[in-house]
Design a protein that fits this description.
Layout: E1 20-22, H1 23-30, H2 34-43, E2 54-56, H3 57-67
Length: about 100
Amino acid sequence: MSVNDAPAGSTGGLSELPEKMRVHALAKLLGTASRDVLATLVGLGQEVRSAQSSITRATAEQVVAALRPVTDAAGATSPDPTDGAEPAGAEAAPAADTPDAAL
């Protein structure tokens, strides 16, 4: 298989993922590093040991959703509503409480 060939059992696109696939094959389809896919899987609560681990189609779709930005019909990416937002219940500390505030 050459570098540009799709992994075995795949159609070369994300629209039809196989029932089971390896982490490294999904990373190749996404154009990202296997370590990024592994980190995403761990973040999703999946127990994987290496890039040779197999994952199900449902899990692969979760990874795709997590790693690919959401695009609208015009092709513009929507910002993640949680980016830059403080966690619920978090309050900013008053500036007077910091030791450098008097300077």
